[in-house]
Amino acid sequence: MSDSDSDDLFAEGDSSIMDAAARFGVLDMLDGPAKAVEQTAAGFAELLATAPELVALGNSNLGDEGLARLSTALATAPGASVTALDVEDNGIGDEGAAALAEALKGGALPNLTTLAMTNNNVGGAGMATISSALAGGALVQLSSCDFNGNQLGDAGLVALGGAIAKGAFAQLSRLYLNKTGVTDAGLVDFSAAITSGEDSSLVMPKLYELWLSNNSIGDAGASALFAAFEKGAMDNLGDLRLQYNQLGDGACSSLVGVLGAYPLSNVWYLGLNDNAFSDAGLAALEVALGNGVLPRLEFLTASSPQSSVAMQQQVQDTFTHRERPPKPPRK
Description:
Layout: H1 17-24, H2 41-49, E1 54-56, H3 63-76, E2 84-86, H4 94-105, E3 114-116, H5 124-135, E4 144-146, H6 153-165, E5 174-176, H7 184-194, E6 209-211, H8 219-230, E7 239-241, H9 249-261, E8 269-271, H10 279-290, E9 299-301, H11 309-321
Parallel strand pairs: 1-2, 2-3, 3-4, 4-5, 5-6, 6-7, 7-8, 8-9
């Protein structure tokens, strides 16, 4: 490097990490192509021909047409090497989702483990087409699915529940559904669908993270979800996020009741802040925590505009000072 070159990661004139990587001569160390992908069926086919593990197309202005072109390319080059597909922030709606679903039905992306469609415009109809593909046996190795910031609504969640009831998502460990327009009605029907079989312990047995924050879920929806846990669904759950919803005292009582019979022994993170419960709901949760429920819990957020700071602090104190099981020895 000459004296005039900067050794800072970003220097004047760098507009992206790619510019900095080029300046340091390490482009070959980065995943994916160094140049932008031509958003045509032929361009996407050329990309797939390089046998990438990651297809990163986030913030690429794909829209429905761009995703349809990618799906067309997948019809002839199914992308067996691809384990992660990122199409977040692309203005994708139901038409693009339907095109992708059709490609998946045809056997595209057979080894995909990570699907990120965050912050698009996929609605209930688009989620239904993707769910149908999954119910038919597509993406059997999927372990992470991110639909945060879409417009799935209750119809989309119920469609997803139907696919799960048919055995989809057997390998899933992360399901992100924050800010997707879900209400009580959708979560009630979803919970009923996923526990409609003979053995609820087979429902997403590897799921570890379930995020449902920033929706319109109240007592009825939360209680239905907790009842599904009690039946054995999502037995591996470790991270449950229900922040910024409308959970009231009824949801707290329901959770406490479920925990009395089924302690969710693997949960380490429980997010309940910014809901609608009062001191009464928090008091019930505090007693349960003191009695040893959620034994692995390490992180708890439980506050609401309707509850007092004193009660919130009391819950945190009980949580912090409760008796905990010994940690397993290091191997």
